[in-house]
Amino acid sequence: MPVTGRCFCGAVRFRFDQPPIVARACWCRDCQYLSSGNASIGVIFRTDGFTVIGETGEYLSRADSGATMRRRFCPACGTPLFSEALEEPDYMVVRAGALDDPEIARPASVIWTASAPSWGHVDPALPSSPRQPGPVSAS
Ligand SMILES: [Zn+2]
Ligand SMILES: [Zn+2]
């Protein structure tokens, strides 16, 4: 069943032909900038079967894990949409807030907990990792 989503203003719409592989909460410092101080919920999809309609802006940065990240966002409303490690072109991460159905984005694990502020809530029921547990595809 396809998975669809869009940015806040609707100028960018996207679709995946396949369901996500997994979702996880990330407390890395980069994600805190993109998610108003909380952990970001990243939903990992195969890039195969991905379609996007509308212009996206992009920003390249070096992640704490050492990967080169390409982040795409809506240039009109600023919604963070996608991030991809250039070293892992078969996978991409979608910000859960942009999905039409955020119910499918329940996190299975929490990563980069070492960067969380003391008030950050890390679900004790989920497996967690203080830093990057491995490649995107491995968790
Ligand atoms: Zn927008
Ligand atoms: Zn992160």
Domain unit count: 1
Q: What helical percentage do the residues reach?
A: under 10%
Question: CATH architecture, please?
Answer: Beta Complex
Give me the count of strands.
11
What is the N-to-C order of secondary-structure elements (H for helix, E for strand)?
Answer: EEEHEEEEEEEE
Rg from Cα:
14 Å
What is the gist of this entry?
The chain is built from one helix and eleven strands; from the N terminus they run βββαββββββββ. The chain has one helix at residues 29-34, and strands at 3-6, 13-16, 22-26, 40-46, 50-53, 57-62, 68-73, 80-85, 91-95, 109-111, 128-129.
Walkthrough of the structure:
- This protein has one helix and eleven strands; from the N terminus they run βββαββββββββ.
- The two termini are 22 Å apart.
- The protein has one helix at residues 29-34; strands spanning 3-6, 13-16, 22-26, 40-46, 50-53, 57-62, 68-73, 80-85, 91-95, 109-111, 128-129.
- The longest helix has 6 residues, at 29-34.
- The mean pLDDT is 93.
- It has a single domain, classed as Beta Complex (Metal Binding Protein, Guanine Nucleotide Exchange Factor, Chain A), CATH 2.170.150.
- Strands 6-7-8-9-4-3-10-11 form an eight-stranded mixed sheet.
- It has 139 residues and is mainly beta.
- The structure holds zinc ion (2 copies).
- The site of one zinc ion has 9 residues, from loops.
